[in-house]
Amino acid sequence: MPEIIFVPTSHVARESLENVRNIVSKEKPDCIALELDVNRYHALKAEESERAGTIGMIKAFGLFTFLIFWVMKKLQNYFGGKTGILPGSEMLRGVEIAEEMGIPYAFIDQPIEETFMGIKEVPFSEKLGLIWMLIKAVFGVFCPFGKKVEIDLNRLPTKKLIEHAMRQFRKELPNFYKVLVEDRNRHMASNLKILGKEFQKIVCVVGAGHEDGMRALLGQ
Fold it and tell me: Where are the beta strands (DSSP E) in the chain?
């Protein structure tokens, strides 16, 4: 295996944008791996026809799966509005830095359509639970960490806080945890192994909740 340097991020934190540039500049990797797939990358780069996209998603995955996606997107945008950072900007920054420095980059996440298909199979009761949890989070009446915690949205949460949040997520919504975390961890770790056959040093930019699971799969 090559040397893999993880850059754990928060998708709306200004600190994450800075960390990506600082670590790439310091490490000078042979490749930058990003928690993106091609369709998500293009969706971040350009606003497509939202109406056409909405109708297509509802037809393909069902109204309830689309509703879950919509609420999750609105929640990310809500927090992004508080920091002035478009959710996913750190991934786009990774592509920009790679192009500036002439470093190859790779999208390692599974196609978002596969994730939607997984969500579609989640039990209805758990889907209701997630939607209710997300709605309460928007209005500040739900804390996934078990107690009120002051969080600076511009900074990456502490590792202890991230670990606790992921344990709670797995406990309360096990099927969603499998679809959104475990399945994608396996896909991304597999792609890193493939990249490792070509590159000796890889900087891997992923959401902080994926880092520990991917390290375990890679034997780090």
Answer: 3-9, 31-34, 105-107, 201-207
Structure tokens at 165: 């949040």
The 10 Å CB-count burial string (b at 16+, else e) for 179-200 is bbbeebbebbbebbeebbeebe
Average pLDDT, the chain: 79
What parts of the chain have a pLDDT lower than 50?
Answer: 47-52, 78, 80-85, 141-142, 144-146
CA dihedral 157, 20, 92, 104 (to 10 degrees): -140
What pLDDT does residue 64 have? 58
* pTM for this predicted structure: 0.80
Query: Helix (H, G, I), strand (E, B), or coil: what is residue 201?
Result: strand
Phi and psi of 184, rounded to 5°? -70, -35
Cα 94–Cα 204–Cα 150 angle in degrees, nearest 5: 80
- In the chain, the number of structural domains is 1
- The whole-angstrom separation of Cα 114 and Cα 189 is 16
Rg of the chain on CA atoms, in Å: 17
pLDDT at 66: 64
Which residue segment(s) compose the domain that 211 sits in? 3-218
Q: Are 184 and 206 in contact (CB under 8 A)?
A: no
